[in-house]
Write a structure and sequence with these properties.
0% strand, single chain, 2 domains, mainly alpha, Arp2/3 complex 21 kDa subunit ARPC3, 271 residues
């Protein structure tokens, strides 16, 4: 383990920095998990959107595979603090950690992944790898719930599907934003684009809030309002490149998920 090797080499500063990374990652993972659990509806610990998946994957790609204990600690203690059975906590820890390690390894080994996502290959590779790697956590997690008696076998399909989709969305929405913004754009060389980005962000938040924050009508008119978002996301991708595209997707997804969970917007249930 990296920490032990640093201790043996008497590199106290490097060991302290490494431990700090582990602890910070664990705390961030736990806090993100609490946000995800707010949206659980099929099972108390099964969310349709799981941000920690994207955080874990991005952390391994940015800081290296040796920060994986932060993921494990975040899952383990986070699960225990929310009242999960120890057996469930261990199962979730194994599944989520393997999911992140597998995804990061496949991206680096077979895709030659660039964190800046400056190639089509990076975007396609992230999507393809995420589709596969997220099945690991969904499968281990669902079997853990079944074997511990926390869920009925009759609900296996619904729980697995929700779990997989939640992890997949977390990987596809959160990870790209974190990876690209890990290296912020230069404000000095792109001052005009910075101003353009602020204007775009304000408009995007306003329009998305209007589309997904209002009561869903019985007709189809409100559903067509989704298309109002297309010009803004295309604008972000063409003019602001990766930083604009990832931020736009993150903002739209976040507001859309919030509205839908509240029963609002085109995907909400009309009263």
């Amino acid at each position: 383990m990296k920490f032990l090797s640093l201790v043996r080499s008497r590199n106290a500063k490097a060991a302290a920095i490494y431990l700090l990374k582990i602890l910070v990652l664990a705390v961030i993972y736990h806090l993100a998990a609490r946000v995800g659990l707010k949206m659980a509806y099929v099972q108390f610990n099964t969310s349709p959107v799981w941000p920690p998946t994207g955080i874990a994957l991005a952390a391994l790609l940015v800081f290296g595979f040796n920060v994986w204990p932060g993921i494990s600690l975040g899952v383990l203690f986070g699960s225990l603090l929310t009242g999960a059975d120890p057996a469930i906590a261990v199962g979730l820890t194994i599944g989520n950690t393997l999911e992140a390690l597998t995804g990061a390894y496949l991206l680096k080994r077979f895709i030659g992944f660039h964190n800046a996502m400056d190639r089509i290959r990076d975007a396609v590779g992230l999507a393809a790898v995420s589709v596969f790697s997220t099945t690991i956590s969904a499968t281990i997690g669902t079997f853990t719930l079944m074997l511990t008696g926390s869920a009925e076998w009759s609900g296996f399909g619904a729980i697995w599907t929700t779990w997989w989709i939640g992890d997949l969305l977390g990987a596809l929405v959160v990870a790209p934003a974190l990876l690209v913004w890990a290296k912020p754009p230069s404000l000095r060389s792109r001052s005009r684009q910075y101003l353009e980005g602020v204007v775009l962000l304000v408009l995007l938040v306003f329009v998305t809030r209007y589309v997904f924050g209002s009561e869903p009508p019985d007709g189809i008119f409100h559903q067509t309002l989704i298309y109002l978002l297309f010009p803004f996301t295309i604008w972000a991708a063409l003019r602001l490149e990766q930083h604009g595209a990832t931020l736009a997707i993150f903002v739209v997804s976040g507001i859309a998920i919030w509205g839908t969970v509240q029963g609002l917007g085109p995907f909400g249930s009309p009263k």
